[in-house]
Amino acid sequence: MKNRIKFSMTVFISMIIILAACGSTDEEITTVNSKKEVNDLTVSAIESNSSMDDVESNESDSAEKESKEVKVLSETNEPIQIGSGEEAIKFLKQQLLEGKDDNISFGTNGEIEEDEKGTYYTVQLVDISLRVSGKTGNLGYYKVYQDGTYELYQLSSNTNVSDQSTDDKEKYLSRLREVEKEMETLRKNSDAMTTLDMEKEQVFRYEVWDKELNEIYGVLREKLSKEQADQLRNKQQEWIEYRDETAKEESLTYEGGSKESLHFVATQATLTKERCFELVLDYMN
């Protein structure tokens, strides 16, 4: 009897141990399978993200490459079409070293011309510092064609015009016409926005013409006889009074306003220019 009980207990305990072992194994298998599934999902996600990044990177590189190609094509193949004098000046400034020099003025009358090479605008370069020093300051003229080509077709010497001709009247008339053209170019390309800026430009204009007048007057005084020189001196003094009185009268139209002094000096400049031509035409041979 005791032996049976002992045998039954032994069998029962064995069965419990076996069942417990089986349960532990199932949990381990389940845990391992779960971890494997998690790892598989993680690897899959990483591979998926990597694949998406590669796709986006490729698309970005492709778009950037396409953008660069379009830019290059635009820069190299797009035809140049210059349609105005202002565009001709802007284009020429980009091509020449003088375009970076603030002392060099670029000017054009804006008129389109034509030769055997095509249609073009004429652009004049003037060295302002040379102009102020008493020389013509003209650095030359460029033909700027509408297709974006350009060429220098006249380069004036900076020496005094009096060294280029044997006829006083013609050489000084030539000089005055050159100065007149340069002043007109500066006027057309003026960027003055305020009355003060405009007045400064008129002061400069007056100083240029006054310098020319003094030079012409000095030459005449040396060439004329004493009697003629005295007569010229008296007439010149009368003219100076006339110039200042006329300028004053003109400025009174704007009396008390910001433009009063502007019109005074502008009138002085215009009358001085006219007097330069008068002296050359009336007194020079």
TrEMBL record:
Signal sequence, start to end = 1-20
Q: Where is this region: Disordered?
A: 46-77
Q: Which Pfam families match?
A: LprI (PF07007)
Residue runs in coiled coils = 162-196
Question: Is Plastid a UniProt keyword of this protein?
Answer: no
Which keywords describe this protein according to UniProt?
Coiled coil, Signal
The question of whether Aminoacyl-tRNA synthetase is a record keyword is answered with no
Indicate the segments forming the Lysozyme inhibitor LprI-like N-terminal domain, all copies.
188-279
The residue ranges flagged as biased composition, category Basic and acidic residues, are 62-72
**Sorted alphabetically, which PANTHER family does this protein's record hold?**
PERIPLASMIC PROTEIN, PERIPLASMIC PROTEIN-RELATED
Please identify the protein, giving its name as recorded.
DUF1311 domain-containing protein
